[in-house]
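Inverse folding, one chain.
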């Protein structure tokens, strides 16, 4: 059933969705395909996406590899109105990730977190932002996490994930300043999806006291924020209800 969420964007808008094979990413893709506002979606993933639709084209990306990101950007045709990054990394059990304590820290794992959660999204901005439309509403959004907030850190642990998401939030802030010089209508934001039932959260769900969203719920909330967040919130990190998460 079709449902228009992205009503503030130009009609027949063009979307690049990165990480479309993930739990939240795939739910975002399904919502976007049901939105009559959408003209075309290019969905990027490492794993192949088992979906075909007249408004969808798929391309491969490895966001830990700059050559792959640059090549992926060539798959985009026309001007973009939404660049949405839904990829991310939390668990690598072989490297004791996420780390519970200092003894678990490991150079390779730490670097991998930064490659996927911080540098990858920054390089996507490098290669994809030149394709962003200048007229009408447009949004560059990357899924971040509340645990990337330094002021909100009460529990400790998860060194590399927390640090890589805090650094992602700084990339977003810095990008928002540069983008505002050329794209007056482009919102640049980090988004916290809430705790969502995916393979990323599953190993930790027994310790979670608050509500856990389905990927479908989270995708609906996130797209609503993408549609309605005001331009003066560019550079910030917003949660699934549009509330600002302090750095
Ligand atoms: N789930 C939660 O509770 C929660 C909470 C806060 C924030 N988040 C954030 O939300 C985002 C999505 O999380 P999720 O729960 O949907 O996780 P997920 O189901 O594990 O999906 C992660 C996605 O990242 C992609 N990815 C990882 N490494 C990649 C690489 N090198 N190149 C390309 N793609 C890569 C995966 O692609 P492949 O599968 O193809 O490898 C997959 O599509 C993440 O940024 C996460 O930090 C999630």
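Residues assigned per position:
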């Amino acid at each position: 059933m079709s449902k228009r969420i992205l009503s503030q964007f130009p009609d027949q808008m063009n979307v690049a969705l990165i990480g479309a094979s993930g739990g939240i990413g795939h739910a975002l893709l399904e919502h976007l395909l049901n939105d009559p506002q959408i003209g075309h979606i290019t969905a990027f993933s490492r794993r192949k996406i088992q979906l075909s639709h007249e408004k969808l084209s798929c391309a491969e990306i490895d966001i830990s590899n700059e050559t792959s990101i640059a090549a992926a950007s060539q798959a985009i045709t026309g001007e973009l109105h939404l660049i949405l990054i839904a990829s991310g990394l939390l668990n690598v059990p072989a490297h004791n990730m996420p780390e519970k304590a200092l003894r678990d820290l490991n150079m390779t794992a730490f670097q991998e977190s930064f490659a996927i959660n911080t540098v990858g999204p920054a390089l996507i901005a490098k290669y994809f932002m030149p394709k962003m439309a200048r007229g009408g509403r447009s949004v560059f959004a990357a899924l971040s996490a509340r645990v990337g907030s330094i002021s909100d850190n009460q529990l400790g642990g998860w060194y590399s994930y927390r640090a890589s998401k805090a650094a992602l939030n700084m990339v977003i802030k810095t990008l928002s300043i540069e983008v505002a010089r050329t794209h007056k209508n482009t919102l640049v934001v980090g988004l916290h999806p809430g705790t969502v039932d995916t393979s990323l959260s599953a190993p930790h769900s027994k310790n979670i006291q608050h509500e856990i969203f389905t990927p479908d719920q989270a995708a609906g909330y996130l797209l609503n924020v993408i549609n309605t967040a005001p331009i003066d919130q560019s550079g910030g990190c917003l949660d699934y209800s549009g509330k600002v998460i302090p750095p």
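The helical segments are 23-33, 66-73, 107-128, 159-182, 215-228. Strands lie at 13-18, 38-45, 56-60, 82-85, 138-143, 186-192, 237-239.
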